[in-house]
Amino acid sequence: MPRSKIAGIGMYVPKNIFTNNDLTKYMETSDAWIQERTGIKERRYADRTEETTTTMGVEAATIAIERAGITAQDVDFIIFATLSPDYYFPGCGVLLQRAMKMKEIGALDIRNQCSGFVYAISVADQFIKTGMYKNILVVGSEKHSFGLDFSTRGRNVSVIFGDGAGAVILQPTENTNQGILSTHLHSDGEAAEILAMYNPGTHANHWANKNYATFPEAEIGEMFMSHEMIDNAENFPYMDGPSVFKKAIVKFPEVIMEALQTNGLQTSDINMLIPHQANLRISQFVQQKLGLSDNQVHNNIQKYGNTTAASVPIALCEAWEEGKIKEGDLVCLAAFGSGFTWASALLKW
Ligand code: ACO
């Protein structure tokens, strides 16, 4: 059975840099607070009208395709991970297929938030191993800036997130010293509401105290999003930060160790760990717990903030472009996010 290898990788971040000080124009916060808690100095925000999650995905995909030495016409499957799609439906996969004038290939959207890209890699890996596809495009892209609460009310969430995209082309390889060794996926829905955007959604929370039999017909169309919900800022993401932190620092090391143990390897064998860029404090905690040195871990949240499904491919691409990852290196991708979901992938570059 062949393994899947990353044949090409690309990233795209918008030009518009937003520093912590820039945020102080909109909310009560400070550069010191943000840097101390998250490590973030600045992030990128997409152009409000010109750039979407799909267009950024296309930019990253174009580079990945070129570096793989193929054309968009050679891609035979698309997997697009995002939590901030252009439309509620359809997903971004088909919009990318259209924009890149690809053949009428399959397009799958993955909604696993911060773990989305690693989940997508795992799905792609299965299709490559079974021989079903030869050139799979995997994209992680987010335009968070469209839907964050930039008032003081939303500051615990809005300061963390940024926009950007990353993409890879996965291809089969018979080289036994290259490619994906294993992937590991997990979830625990017990705490689904701890880090979530509830609306628009079909959950009944908003109507729990209302009598369906009596509410006026005019309100029926407001099931997804009412004026009242918008007035109450119920259209923004909610996060219980301390609870996320506590769970993340347990699950990140666990899923990394699971990948190593599955392959009879140790932390000292890792050449480069690419953790999802949730928060620099989380990455540092994981690094310390696993006893990894600074040159075994790549972090770039300082420049881009948390770009959710895009953070792993952006960090991977940047580490590779900076010469930190070489042929034959053992690379570990690891992510934890809303759901909760967490995942890892161990690969030989
Ligand atoms: N600027 C200034 N003050 C703020 C800000 C801000 N941006 N945000 C919150 N505060 C205030 C709060 O209002 C609160 O004030 P109070 O004590 O007067 O009530 C105080 O700071 C502490 O608030 P907490 O929410 O308890 O802040 P905490 O110290 O826990 O830090 C943070 C928040 C950074 C989110 C932290 O909980 C954390 O790192 N959590 C991990 C979650 C995370 O990183 N998520 C990333 C996305 S999810 C993912 O990728 C997996």
Q: What can you see in these coordinates?
A:
- β12 and β13 (341-348) form a beta hairpin.
- The protein has eleven helices and 13 strands.
- It starts with a strand and ends with a strand.
- The model has no long low-confidence stretch (mean pLDDT 93).
- It is globular.
- It folds into two domains: 3-173, Peroxisomal Thiolase, Chain A, domain 1 (3-Layer(aba) Sandwich), CATH 3.40.47.10; 179-193 and 238-348, Peroxisomal Thiolase, Chain A, domain 1 (3-Layer(aba) Sandwich).
- It has helices at 20-23, 31-38, 53-67, 92-99, 116-129, 155-158, 227-231, 241-262, 280-290, 301-304, 311-321, and strands at residues 3-12, 17-19, 42-44, 77-81, 106-110, 136-142, 164-173, 179-187, 195-196, 238-239, 272-275, 330-337, 341-348.
- The protein is α/β, with parallel strands linked by helices.
- The strands form four sheets. Strands 1-7-6-4-5 form a five-stranded mixed sheet, sandwiched between helices.
- Residues 29, 33-34, 37-38, 114, 155-156, 159-160, 195, 241-242, 244-245, 248, 278-279, 281-282, 306, 336-337 line the site of acetyl coenzyme *A.
